[in-house]
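User: Good morning. I'm curious how S-adenosylmethionine would be positioned relative to this chain. Could you predict the structure with it bound?
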Amino acid sequence: MSDWVVLGEDERIHMVELVDSTLRIKGLGVFNPKLILSEIEVGEEVLIGQKYLTRMPARLPELIKGMQRRAQTISAKDAGALISRMGIGPGDCVLDAGLGSAGLSLHLARVMGNSGHLLTIEPREEHAEVGLANLARAADCFPEFPQHDHCEGLVDEVVGNTGLEFDAVILDMADHSAAINACAPMLKFGARLACYAPNTSQLESCWQTCIDVGLNVEWAAEIIERPWGRASKGGVRPTKGAFGHTAFLLIAIKN
Ligand SMILES: C[S@@+](CC[C@H](N)C(=O)[O-])C[C@H]1O[C@@H](n2cnc3c(N)ncnc32)[C@H](O)[C@@H]1O
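Assistant: Good morning! Here's the predicted structure, ligand included:
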């Protein structure tokens, strides 16, 4: 059993570590998690304070809902497309920079298995603290987890010292150019580099830099997700107000 218990409360998820001491748990109050939760099975209800909560399985969507957040995260819509289009899976060596809150790294870790190798890089200590805490929870909850190494610093300054060759590199930062320059020589033949670019000038600059370093831009797109819901008078229809932009995705291949 993992050291974490996932509790569902309507749309909210609480991740509670099974420690044997009386603590204040944000959103739930003061209690001893080990005493109250260790005998609760997945699917069972438990009363904590005034709230009935249900123990949920510790799957990726629950960990994403219950994660700590600091920097803006890459969500399932874009992470899923990046993973599929870059062909990321077990055995791969993957670089995720910057780590931020590890939204993308949680998705990567879930598909890479024990044979994968995930390298994360992040210059800001306060972001890394949150991202690494989210990854540590996931390592306790997922049945398999890749070898994970983390470097502090700017990707363009530290990636060259790792001595690694990558199957996939994903760059999510404000200015990608120096990172693309530093990472392109470290891609294996046939490996892919992706940029997550919130605005069009970032996308254009990524595109040009990829060309300049000899990568071939294979695909660039914005993925549009249009949520639907049940209408109060019957039927289903697009929901109002949830049709937002996240970022443009660009994938380039070394071949
Ligand atoms: C939007 S956040 C990344 C979010 C992350 N992809 C996620 O899904 O949670 C961007 C991060 O890139 C980091 N960053 C900025 N420039 C960087 C660089 N040159 N190398 C590595 N990380 C960088 C920032 O400190 C920030 O934490």
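The helical segments are 33-37, 60-65, 76-86, 103-112, 125-141, 155-158, 177-183, 200-212. The mean pLDDT is 96.
Let me know if you'd like a different ligand tried.
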